[in-house]
Amino acid sequence: MYLPPQFAAQHRASAMELMRSHAFASLISVDDEGTPFVSHIPLHLEDRTAVGAQAHSDWVLLGHVAKGNAHWRYLESRPQALVTFMGPHAFMSTRVYPDLVRVPTWTYLAVHCKVQARLITEQDAKDRLLKKLIADHDPAYAEQWRGLSEDYAGKMLSAIVGFELQVSDVQCKIKLNQHRPESHARMHELYAAGSDDERALAQWMQRLGLTGAEKGQGGAA
After folding, report:
1. Nearest in space to 60 (alpha carbons), one of 111, 118, 124
2. Mean pLDDT within 189-214
3. Residue 168 falls within a domain, yes or no?
4. Residue 63 sits in which domain range?
5. Residue 203 lies in a domain
6. With contact defined as beta carbons under 8 Å apart, do 113 and 86 qualify?
7. From CA 165, how far away is CA 23, in angstroms rounded?
């Protein structure tokens, strides 16, 4: 993605947090005609990095699609893919500036991951994958899943194809007008009183020191 230096996150922890808190991702591959093909799915992030390894060298994303979704066949034949995560985002009005010769924009947080796919087709492995997604989004359902009959659970597992996505590269974009410190105080004020996404952006501004208290210096992203 287009990533000017002022919007590039300096710490991988920011990317990991966004990938876990906004886990409903877009998995993008190429179909048999060479056209981009997208599936919108929840993904579970595992950090398998060993001590001393590079910070993101062993990040793995786990997910699945319905067997009727041709996406798994595209992953099988062309394992390289892209996964995107969209964090909070909102319109930014020119009202944040002390002068009028400005233009509006959109602020947002996003993560892009280049991945290498490996299919998961064994029933036991798919069951373990599902239990991780259940733990992420509905832990109370775990007992109900375990209580399903073996026949019914087997049919449900047979209806999906799982996959493991090895992350080879991560880009994390935090676009909060870092390079325009004169906007930060008013921008933070408006976002803090706004929608859920706007309040989330205000919290990120607070974390990055972009609240107007930086005295003319843009905060690090």
Report:
1. 118
2. 94
3. yes
4. 5-179
5. no
6. no
7. 14
DSSP for 95-152, please give it: GGSSSSS---EEEEEEEEEEEEEEEE--HHHHHHHHHHHHHHH-TTHHHHHHHS-HHH
The domain tally of the chain equals 1
Burial of 25 (0-12, 13-18, 19+ CB in 10 A): buried
Is the residue at 195 inside a domain? no
Triad 53, 112, 40: Cα angle to 5°: 120
Q: Residue 49: its pLDDT value, please? A: 79
Q: Give the CATH number for residue 151.
A: 2.30.110.10
pLDDT the model gives residue 54: 54
Over residues 131-153, the mean pLDDT reads 95
Q: Answer whether residue 173 is part of any domain.
A: yes
What gap in Å lies between CA 21 and CA 36, rounded to an integer?
Answer: 26
Q: Distance between CA atoms of 19 and 13, rounded to whole angstroms?
A: 10
Evaluate if residue 164 carries a pLDDT over 60: yes
pLDDT of res. 187 = 98
Residue pair 18/24 in contact (Cβ under 8 Å)? The answer is no
User: In which band, very low, low, confident or very high, does the pLDDT at 51 lie, cut at 50, 70 and 90?
Assistant: low
CB 28 within 8 A of CB 114: no
**pLDDT tens digits for range 117-131:** 999 999 999 999 999
Tell me the per-residue pLDDT of 106-116, one tens digit each, with 9 for 90 and over. 999 999 999 99
Contact 175, 109 (CB under 8 A): yes
